[in-house]
């Protein structure tokens, strides 16, 4: 009898920890910074376990009624649902960085600096050096300004908005992802707008010079000036653009 009395709370505790790990671990596996391929998988796993065990005492009173008489097939459904919810929260946090990576590639292309690829920060595929600098700077500010704590706050708040036994609403999730993509690409397009305008003006000027002097290889002569102008523009605008990105990302993360 005492053995049975002890084993039941232990089983409920293990199931609670596993359900918390399904949501928290899925979020950490795709959130900015932690999901980088530069971080070993074992480090990411231990970080997810540590964060999950840290919040288990806070969430155990909410999950105990759900796990009182849970069946095996219900437990499997809960694990899948929790993993999807956690992954969705991580994707919503990562969307702004995906948009920034895309626009950073556009910036590198507009200033003529896309021909020398380097190691990417958030992806395994190489990207331009300017794009890597912009992505690394934004990721650094993401942690310095404590925006990663907003992701953890959203995780804890998600248990009130989306309880464990409530199920997942695909229509609401699709609306959230669509709105996040729209706001992310709109915000990052504002970041890349000065460089796009610079590229348009420079190409128009180069085209006019080429029409006036068709025998001179204008492209090769103008390339150093385009690179120099783009680097000067990056030097003066990058701090303000990164501040704008952190502000927009912070507003997005706090709206979860």
TrEMBL record:
Q: What does this protein do?
A: Role in flagellar biosynthesis.
Q: What is this protein called?
A: Flagellar biosynthetic protein FliR
Domain of life, per UniProt, equals: Bacteria
Provide GO CC annotations from the record: bacterial-type flagellum basal body; plasma membrane
The reply to whether Cell membrane figures as a keyword in the UniProt entry is yes
The keyword Ion transport is assigned to this record: no
| UniProt xrefs under PANTHER family | FLAGELLAR BIOSYNTHETIC PROTEIN FLIR, SURFACE PRESENTATION OF ANTIGENS PROTEIN SPAR
Any Pfam family matching the protein: Bac_export_1
Q: Where is it located?
A: Cell membrane; Bacterial flagellum basal body
What kind of membrane protein is this, topologically? Multi-pass membrane protein
What's this protein's family per the entry? Belongs to the FliR/MopE/SpaR family.
Q: Give the GO terms filed under biological process for this record.
A: bacterial-type flagellum assembly; protein targeting
Q: Where, by residue number, does the polypeptide cross the bilayer?
A: 13-31, 43-63, 83-116, 128-145, 191-209, 216-238
Identify the keywords attached in UniProt to this record, alphabetized.
Bacterial flagellum, Cell membrane, Cell projection, Cilium, Flagellum, Membrane, Transmembrane, Transmembrane helix
Q: What is its main location?
A: membrane
